[in-house]
Amino acid sequence: MMMMMKILLLSVFMLAAPAQAWLSLEDWGSGSVDGSIGDLGQCVCNVFLPDTSFPADRMEQMQSSSKQLAVEVQIHISKLSSLKVELVVLLESLSNLTARLEVLESGPDKYIKLEFELLRVELREFEALVTQIKTSLNSSSSAFDSLYAEIHSMRIIVDQLESYDRSNLEVIRHEFTKLQRKLKKCQEDQQDITNAPIGSCKHAGILKIGKPVVSQLNADLNGAFKYGGWGKDSKPLSGSESMYWYSGSSDTLVSKISQYSAYYTLITRQSFKAHLLYVDRQYDWRGAGNNYVVRENNLYYQYRSPFAMAKFNMTSAKVETKVVPKASTQFSYHYSINQNLDFAADESGLWVTYATADSNGTLVLGKINEQSFTVEEVWQTSIFKQSVTNAFMICGVLYATRSVDTHTEEIFYTYDTTKNQESHVSIRFEKFQDFYVYLDYNPADQKLYMFNNGYYVTYNLKFKVV
Ligand SMILES: *[C@@H]1O[C@H](CO)[C@@H](O)[C@H](O)[C@H]1NC(C)=O
Ligand SMILES: *[C@@H]1O[C@H](CO)[C@@H](O)[C@H](O)[C@H]1NC(C)=O
Ligand SMILES: *[C@@H]1O[C@H](CO)[C@@H](O)[C@H](O)[C@H]1NC(C)=O
Ligand SMILES: *[C@@H]1O[C@H](CO)[C@@H](O)[C@H](O)[C@H]1NC(C)=O
After folding, report:
1. Is 264 strand, coil or helix?
2. For a pocket test of ligand 4, which of 326, 360, 365, 415 has the largest count of ligand atoms closer than 8 A to its C-beta?
3. Where is the Olfactomedin-like domain (predicted)?
């Protein structure tokens, strides 16, 4: 029991870390708890930090004390280098912690003592983690310094509480509640400023792409799972708005998809359902190419054999396939093989991109009629599919990407189906790591989702105002 809670809470803390990294050093010590908005609409919180001295020697002992932690640190160093993550996760984990502390306060003393000691250990381990990352990162990062200071002061406060009585727990809870309030305010502020409302196309396309937000190594915790995808339902069924899905593998085959009730359970790897697309001697509905989308609880994907587009209804667990006229298996995207059909969903519906022999390998865009599950209209682009790294749709406009260098990706081409107009553009964005196989826009939250070398990555978008 104790062990379980410890692991759980530790992972909660590590999730919390990147979001706190958004806190900035501006107004250091002013006592302000106000939030402000960064240049990409991200939340920047101003934090009050109590004056404390740091017992470096003790922390160093701590650092070497946990081998498990060190492994996690390796994962999280790269993750934290982006210094951003969903605010909502931090809020969830904080409210979870706060709730636990509330339970404590009303519980019997013996239970309190145990929990209190646990909390101390967890905070110490977390601080050690942050210390290690701090040295691994460029220490001039003020956002990271702020995160570190926040955790450090929290730990000091807890450590200063020599006993574990109810009033002390009250103090700790107060600290968490304060932080929670700040972040909530920040989140509210953030909602006012950004883009056109969800679902609206009253904008002129992408202006800018935010920094990669690296959430987590995939749910299989397998670095060899470079092929996969993740995201949210692009048109969620009522009651499934917070659902996430994930599929991953060490090859380009698609054999399984898992569903998670919320971001929190995705990150803690507690799926509520896992669908197998292959059961030996029973059925083989496997896909290929990792360019699927989930829409109304259906997985739309490239069927492996025979080559077709497939719709796997995750509600009924039934599969349906349709041949895409003229689509070829000869032209994959630049990074990976077998990416012949790329599904995309946007404000206007469901799309599939591919190439045909007739088109000499240039990209063809098809609109899928969701009722009949057929390609009802096609557009011919002028770009060669094999030079493209991926593509996605926003408001009826196709965006195609290519690689610039190991750190940089670029949207170099758009095709507007509402005007039958193509454009060569340059919208560059930072890659987390060089290799990725999955990139899609989700109209339900206006974010890009990428499966990058086994990691879940998202990007916030800033649209041009009309
Ligand atoms: C905190 O999160 C864990 C993991 O999902 C959950 O089991 C627990 O019930 C949550 N606690 C509260 C008080 O929300
Ligand atoms: C650290 O930050 C400085 C100043 O921002 C920058 O010049 C330097 O290249 C960075 N070093 C690394 C290793 O990122
Ligand atoms: C998926 O299956 C459910 C349950 O049978 C059904 O209600 C729904 O219409 C199906 N969706 C599609 C897109 O076929
Ligand atoms: C493909 O190549 C053929 C022969 O060069 C040409 O006639 C045809 O127009 C090309 N198709 C496209 C879509 O570029």
Report:
1. helix
2. 360
3. 200-465
Q: Calculate how far, in angstroms, residue 249's C-alpha sits from the geometric centre of ligand 3.
A: 27
Written as six digits, the tokens of 132 are 């290690």
Same domain for 236 and 102? no
Domain annotation covers residue 383: yes
- Residue with CA nearest ligand 1 atom 3: 96
* Structure tokens given for 271: 């799926």
Q: Which domain holds residue 153?
A: 75-174
Same-domain status, 292 and 166: no
Instruction: Clarify whether residues 232 and 308 are in a common domain.
Output: yes
Whether the CB-CB separation of 254 and 277 falls below 8 Å is answered with: yes
- Same domain, yes or no: 437 and 308: yes
Residue nearest to atom 13 of ligand 2 (CA): 138
Ligand nearest to the backbone CA of 142: 2
What tens digit of pLDDT does each residue of 275-299 get? 999 999 999 999 999 999 999 999 9
Q: Rounded to the nearest whole angstrom, what is the distance from the C-alpha of residue 273 to the centroid of ligand 3?
A: 17
C-alpha span between 261 and 92 (Å, rounded):
14
The residue whose two tokens read 């250091």 is: 28
Protein residue whose Cα sits closest to atom 2 of ligand 4: 360
3-state DSSP assignment of residue 267: helix
Question: Do 240 and 315 share a domain, yes or no?
Answer: yes
Residues 142 and 204 in one domain: no
Give the ligand whose atoms come closest to the C-alpha of residue 98.
Answer: 1
Q: Which of 36-45, 150-159, 395-404 has the lowest mean pLDDT?
A: 36-45
The answer to which of 12-26, 164-178, 188-202, 419-433 has the lowest mean pLDDT is 12-26
Distant-in-sequence contacts of 431-434, Cβ < 8 A, 24+ apart: 431/212, 431/406, 431/407, 432/78, 432/82, 432/212, 432/214, 432/457, 433/78, 434/403, 434/406, 434/407
Question: pTM higher than 0.70 for the full model?
Answer: no
Residue 355 lies in a domain: yes
Ligand nearest to the CA of 15: 1
Please give the distance, rounded to the nearest whole angstrom, from the Cα atom of residue 361 to the centre of ligand 4.
10
Q: List, for residues 55-91, the tens digit of each pLDDT value.
A: 333 334 333 333 334 444 444 443 443 333 333 444 5
The pLDDT of residue 41 is above 70? no
**96 CB under 6 A from ligand 1?**
yes
Is the beta carbon of 313 within 6 A of some atom in ligand 3? yes
For residue 133, tell me if it sits in a domain. yes
